[in-house]
Amino acid sequence: MRLHFVEGGPALLVENTRRVLVIADLHMGIESGFARHGVHIASRSDARVQRAVACVEATDPDLLLLLGDVKHNVPITSRQEFQELPRVIDTLRALAPLRVAPGNHDGGLPKFLRPDELLPVEGALIDGVGYLHGHTHPAPDLLGHLVVLGHHHPVVSLQDAVGCAARAQPAFLYAGLHERCLPREEAPGRGASTRLLFVPSFNELAGGIEIVRIRESGLSPLSRCMNESTAEVYLADGTYVGSLASLCPAEGR
Rounded to whole angstroms, what are the CA distances from 149 to 67, 77, 89, 130, 162? Predict the structure, then answer.
């Protein structure tokens, strides 16, 4: 198995017997969500979709997998989403077979999808790799494999020699799993061999959680079970940043 960090994303290409392109947390309609709180931003949906199209064209995948939170507004589907989502979905499915792992923002999304395009909310095993949005417990058959998940919007702030932090950048977080954190019936000897890969948000407006705070955020069952001592950090272009412990040595992580 080979993993490729796709420039122009952030996106991930998983290459095994099939080539699976993973895009997480599109959050289409985010601009209407801001407008509801008095912040008015022109829609960037077209530019965001064209960036996704460029990722597909650059990688020529056998499958395009949207890793949840395709839409933004909860619990409603906004007027912007009703107008834009059919065009977005049609554009992407015309490029490659499409699958969607539903996220916590995706209420109402199934009406825009074909029945075979929607994966179970607890995730699915595809070509030996587990995929789920990440807000739920994983299906038991995902354990013992690499599990690719979104939901957490990981970002990293790098500091220079004098301690000045640069703007937070999207980042991938790769880590093992503490088996003891999972119910025994869910991890019969397979939890320790499970590996997690947290994929950053594709949406440039969606913000994120500092990578050193993901476990303590308690945002999901898997992040709470993450083994920080094995965790490694990569920028969106694949640049290796270092271990999680090296980013916060004072806290002894």
Answer: 7, 23, 20, 8, 34
For residue 167, the model assigns a pLDDT of: 72
Q: Which amino acid, one-letter code, is at 14?
A: V
Domains, the chain: 2-251 (3.60.21)
Entry pTM? 0.90
The whole-number pLDDT of residue 253 equals 41
Q: What is the pLDDT of residue 207?
A: 87
- Beta bridge mates, 15: 2, 19
Residues of the chain with pLDDT under 50: 251-253
